[in-house]
Write a structure and sequence with these properties.
Layout: H1 3-13, H2 15-20, E1 23-28, E2 31-36, E3 43-45, E4 48-49, H3 51-68, E5 77-87, E6 96-105, E7 109-118, E8 126-135
Antiparallel strand pairs: 1-2, 2-6, 3-4, 5-8, 6-7, 7-8
Helix pairs in contact: 1-3
């Protein structure tokens, strides 16, 4: 099975991803784009999207990118082992896009960069660096 197939199905059926409304927009080897539709429940104060929701979007996008390019017979196990998020601007009452790109893929660790922007804008809301560990057993 290809990782892109697995991650597409995972994102459709994950209860937490579904709760947040995260949507898969694009997937290819070592690159994923996810969307986080704006909802009032994601606001921290006023109309600002909560940093925890943005951090979850970053983590989920990196995980999807880490799995995107692998082939396997049994589903791999994996986990985030490092997550760093920089908030650069407020995401105000807007849908967000996260583009995750693998910077380096080692034997078990993937290093990923994630950029978050409003769907209708170019200004970065957040950027993240994620280290994800894949265990193919």
């Amino acid at each position: 099975m290809r990782g892109a197939e697995l991650i597409s199905e995972f994102l459709k059926h994950s209860p937490f991803v579904g709760h947040l409304g995260i949507e898969l927009r694009e997937i290819e080897d070592d690159r994923v784009v996810l969307a986080l539709p704006f909802r009032d429940e994601m606001v921290t104060i006023g109309d600002v999207v909560h940093g925890g929701a943005i951090s979850t979007l970053i983590d989920t996008a990196a995980m999807a990118a880490a799995w995107s390019a692998i082939e396997f017979d049994e589903p791999p196990r994996g986990t985030t082992v490092g997550l760093s998020v920089d908030f650069l601007a407020a995401g105000r009452a807007t849908d967000l896009l996260a583009e995750a790109t693998i910077l380096r893929r080692g034997s078990s660790l993937c290093f990923c960069e994630v950029k978050v922007r409003p769907i209708a804008g170019a200004e970065l809301v957040a950027s993240g660096l994620v280290t994800y560990k894949l265990d193919s057993r």
